[in-house]
Specification:
five-stranded antiparallel β-sheet, Jelly Rolls, about 15% helix
């Protein structure tokens, strides 16, 4: 009797674990890292430069290439600061017809060392964007360093 009861408990526990694994895998997005435009790889590390003037430009924008062989449901940018700082942050999706949609915009965002800031963008158009732009800068952020990457999620 004890053996059958024990076997039944094991069977129920196994079934519960199996069903939970199906639920979690069905809910998980399949995401792919996007390549940085103008650099190699999928992550770029930057130190925020001073703002633009008539003769100088800043490095506050980073573009990522969206592959044309997939249609993504969302995009997730991850900014990992190396300093405690306040950043102005934006994320925009760019389309081939030269339009764009701003997915995120917030000024003076307080970030902490090693704590990722995640931005989510969802395409507003039936067509897939060809680029994702992440803007990280602001006067309060000059001299601070961060890494940024973007993933497209199905």
């Amino acid at each position: 009797m004890f053996l059958k009861s024990f076997q039944l408990k094991i069977l129920v526990a196994f079934g519960l674990l199996l069903s939970l694994s199906f639920v979690s895998s069905a809910q998980a997005d399949e995401c792919y890292p996007l390549n940085v435009i103008g650099d190699t790889g999928t992550t770029v590390k930057k130190t925020v430069s001073p703002f633009s003037t008539l003769v100088t430009s800043n490095n506050w924008n980073t573009d990522f290439s969206v592959p044309s062989d997939r249609s993504f449901n969302s995009f997730e940018a991850t900014i990992v600061p190396e300093n405690n700082a306040n950043y102005d942050v934006e994320m925009s999706l760019k389309y081939r017809d030269r339009s764009s949609s701003r997915s995120y915009k917030k000024d003076n965002v307080a970030v902490k060392v090693g704590q990722p800031l995640r931005l989510i963008g969802v395409p507003q158009s039936p067509s897939n964007p060809f680029q994702v732009n992440v803007f990280v800068g602001g006067l309060n952020a000059i001299g601070n360093t961060y890494s940024v990457s973007v993933e497209g999620c199905l």
